[in-house]
Amino acid sequence: MAEVGIFVGTMYGNALLVAEEAETILKKHGHQAKVFEDPELADWQYYRNHYALVVTSTTGQGDLPDSIMPLFQSIKDQLGYQPELHYGLIALGDSNYDRFCGGGKQFDALLQEQSATRIADVLTIDANDHPEPEVVSGPWVEQWATLLK
């Protein structure tokens, strides 16, 4: 089964809750999964030949949370081209803001620029409609888990 690194960017804990639920679901499907709350480039590098699942909320005006910004910056500055990477992305946000899910969309754009392969569409979760984001993310992760080899 697949090895999945789950990389979390959270402010108030919702993204971490979604990531921990994803870890449980992936393990139930027979995959190995590990959550990284304060992810570092070395953690990311290991999963470049496996799978990465990015779960991030959005802060301010479409920015990434402080907990994942160093990883994002390191990937941008130090890695560049990574066509071997397969990933999924869950973006949490609030549609009351102009840049809804901007943090997740930035991360996705960077990985696409670097020729990584996204498995499934990005899941965007609106805090206005879903105060418990794991209710929405659970079925998405169930489906995503079946796409991993």
Number of strands: 6
Give me the number of helical elements: 5
* Main sheet attributes: strand count, strand direction, barrel closure: 6 strands, parallel
End-to-end C-alpha gap: 6 Å
- H and E order: EHEHEHEHEEH
Compute the average pLDDT. 96
What radius of gyration results from the CA coordinates? Answer: 14 Å
Unreliable sequence segments: none
Quickly give the structural class: alpha/beta
Percent helix: 25-40%
- 3D shape: globular
* % residues in beta strands: 15-25%
Walk me through this protein's architecture.
The protein is of the alpha/beta class and about 150 residues long. About 40% of the residues lie in helices and about 20% in strands. The chain has five helices and six strands, in the order βαβαβαβαββα. The chain has helices at about 15-30, 40-45, 70-80, 100-115, 135-145, and strands spanning about 5-10, 30-35, 50-55, 85-95, 115-120, 125. Strands 1, 2, 3, 4, 5 and 6 form a six-stranded parallel β-sheet that branches. Helix 1 links the parallel strand 1 and strand 2. The longest helix has 15 residues, at about 15-30. It starts with a strand and ends with a helix. The mean pLDDT is about 95.
